[in-house]
Design a protein that fits this description.
The protein is α/β, with parallel strands linked by helices and 357 residues long. It contains 13 helices and 13 strands. The chain folds into two domains: 20-200, Thiolase/Chalcone synthase (Peroxisomal Thiolase, Chain A, domain 1, 3-Layer(aba) Sandwich); 207-356, Thiolase/Chalcone synthase (Peroxisomal Thiolase, Chain A, domain 1). Helix 4 crosses helix 6 and helix 10 packs parallel to helix 11. Bound molecules: coenzyme A.
Length: 357
């Protein structure tokens, strides 16, 4: 028999009334200084600018120099700081590092196996009141982390969450492998998700998926996590990106439209009502394919892959923040943009959502 004590009645009422809305209040980014062009790569790889531009849409990428303060922790903290600094520009008002109560860092390339990159960023940022942890979902990391932040806020557990995507894929690139060396770049992006009235909730349902990829079409094997480490493994330097480009391409051209279609349908909008799409930047042809599929002009798809390559978990917030700064994304005062965000990557993982911003 269910016995209701005053405490349990209070708990039920509280849980019924403690649903919060969530909204993104700011974005930020930080990229390494060093620009590496296709011509730079052609000096030591059997490749050329024409092949790379035509097949991927990439002209140059940023490559970090951790010795110059551009490690994953440094860039992640700088992107988070930039999101704090830009609260006023994006939403009015301000937020201090101490107001952040959770940091979720999506990364597959942290500087340490442990502690988490998020904890180290917490220290650098001075976010002394935050809980911090990492999330590993490769290039879909930002979407999964945003979904997690949304749910924490919706439940009432946290009020201001810093979501960071940072990856330094250059650490794991085999610079003799032209099929991967031309694709990836380094960078960090961030978004702050804050609680609001339920009526102002700016998120529509997330569509997220995983399919364990035992064929290993995209991976970095972790030597440090194997014990005992085989001498041959150390010599062979297996901690490098391996990618079956064709298999990943075939997966992506299905996953991106599928995720967007599901997320848009769940939002109740029609594809043409979405103001801008901010997709993971992996290959311009994958983005063009999605635009064709929905009969949406490419101008609505934010693309900066030409200048950054694939920055993995960082690509979506970098693309949004830069496009807003450059005026490619325009928002009139009081206007709420409808944004379609979509990511995909190793795992395999993929996901999308529509948010109002
Ligand atoms: N420069 C010049 N030639 C290259 C090259 C390079 N950088 N990389 C590969 N090639 C060669 C190949 O060796 C092959 O030569 P061959 O025909 O003599 O064997 C030829 O170009 C075609 O290779 P292929 O792999 O069929 O090219 P592609 O059109 O499939 O493009 C990718 C390759 C990697 C650009 C494409 O498959 C892709 O974008 N895949 C998805 C990758 C991705 O999104 N990864 C991240 C997921 S988060």
């Amino acid at each position: 028999m269910l016995i209701l004590t005053p405490v349990s009645v209070f708990a039920i009422i509280f849980s019924m009334s403690s649903r919060f809305g969530a909204k993104v209040i700011s974005w930020g980014r930080a990229v390494p200084e060093r620009v590496v062009t296709n011509d730079d790569l052609a000096q030591f790889l059997d490749t050329d600018d024409e092949w790379i531009s035509k097949r991927t849409g990439i002209s140059e990428r940023r490559i970090a120099d951790p010795e110059k303060g551009e490690g994953a922790i440094d860039l992640g903290a700088a992107a988070a700081q930039s999101a704090l600094d830009q609260v006023e520009k994006y939403s009015g008002g301000s937020l201090a590092a101490e107001d952040i109560d959770l940091i979720i860092c999506a990364t597959a390339t942290g500087d340490y196996l442990f502690p988490s990159t998020a904890c180290m960023i917490q220290d650098k940022l001075g976010a002394s009141n935050a809980v911090a942890f990492d999330m590993s979902a490769a290039c879909t990391g930002f979407i999964f982390a945003l979904n997690t932040a949304y749910n924490y806020i919706h439940s009432g557990q946290f009020k201001n969450i810093m979501v960071i995507g940072v990856d330094l894929m250059s650490k794991y690139i085999d610079w003799a492998d032209r099929s991967t060396a031309v694709i990836f770049g380094d960078g960090a992006g961030a978004a702050i998700v804050s609680a609001c009235d339920e009526a102002e909730d700016a998120f529509h349902p997330f569509y997220i998926k995983s399919r364990g990829d035992s064929d290993c079409s995209l991976y970095v094997k972790s030597v440090a996590n194997q014990y005992p480490v085989a001498e041959a493994d150390i010599k062979a330097k297996p901690e490098m990106v391996y990618m079956d480009g064709k298999a990943v391409y075939e997966f992506a051209v299905k996953a991106v439209p599928e995720a967007l279609e599901q997320a848009i349908e769940a939002s109740g909008y029609k594809p043409e009502e979405i103001d801008y799409f901010v997709p993971h930047q992996a290959n311009i042809r994958i983005i063009q394919g999605a635009a064709r599929r929905f009969k949406i002009p490419m101008e609505k798809f934010i693309c900066n892959i030409d200048r950054y390559g694939n920055t993995s978990a960082a690509s979506i917030p970098i693309a949004f923040d830069e496009a807003y700064e450059l005026g490619q994304i325009k928002r009139e005062p009081g206007q709420k943009l409808k944004l379609g965000l979509v990511g995909f990557g190793a795992g395999l993982t993929w996901g999308a959502t529509v948010i109002e911003f």
